[in-house]
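thought: fold this chain, then report.
action: predict
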Amino acid sequence: MTKNIALISGDGIGIEVIAQARKVLDSVAKKFHHSFAFNELLAGGIAIDKTGKCLPESTLKACKQSDSVLLGAVGGPKWDTQPKDNRPESALLRIRKELDLFANIRPAKIFPQLKDASPLKIEILQKGIDFVIVRELVGGAYFGEKKIEVINGEKYASDAMSYTQSQITNIAKAAFELALKRKKHIVCVDKANVLDSSRLWREVVEYVARDYQEVSLEFMYVDNAAMQIVRCPSQFDVILTENMFGDILSDEASVITGTIGVIPSASLGHTKLGMYEPIHGSAPDIAGQDKANPIGTILSAALMLDLSFGLKAEAEALQQAVIKVLDSGYRTLDMMSEGMISVGCEKMGDLIAQNI
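observation:
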């Protein structure tokens, strides 16, 4: 198989973690006789520095022509003074919108080797953490109408959390299809006691559920869900929610697994073209110091192999390579514990590539 992969290293540690993911994908290609062609593209702060734009049109065009997009991270304090439509994060929002990547899939699963790094009590961890957050990605407050104006002599700001029936239907179907492959249970998270948009979510999700009788469905307010994720994460299988709630809850979920550095994500639409990225940021404080954890990016590559390319055996081989390295006691700084072997970003990539 030959696939064209758009590589967006971005900013900060994105450059380092993408290099390791590419290294591991080269090992997968060699082992399984595939050919992966990498197209390195600019987006984020580095694109602003080199072109003046956070997302050059050439990058967007190349992404659309690729089989998949693999992203490191974008952003940093250096570009905080940019206009809001040219901030590094705006590049991601536009890519998602232009590629119609409406579904963000973020697994929250704890590696047994990293239990000591989790802030949760051992009796909670013993019940297991293995759920997926399905987050709507192109609607809600992040894309709704925004205003800053002066009314009666004082500034007034507003962000519209707006959704259409079709947007909710698309993400709900994605969640139900995923639930069918898991434990057949969905918790839809909203704030229907306060928000009209959430009440529409409930109406549409209940309608979609009629076509998925095998899947059990319940609703939970977002404040309760935030509490339940740390109190009893084992109760969740698939969490379906809107854009902003999903952004917050998925970051919370990443922390309970021990380290944000190992969590991958996939952004998908109606086609096989997806964008894959770790959920951590650009971490400019450690950039260039070989301290980053590349596992989240490498596991994002595994999701790409599975979901966009249909290479399930290759994805499993990559995941097993990560487990072998962790079993051998190797740890990057963010997940280091007593008795383990400390390695840098590049060495961790080498070890995983060698274990494919």
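thought: worth noting. The longest strand covers residues 2-10.
final: tokens above.
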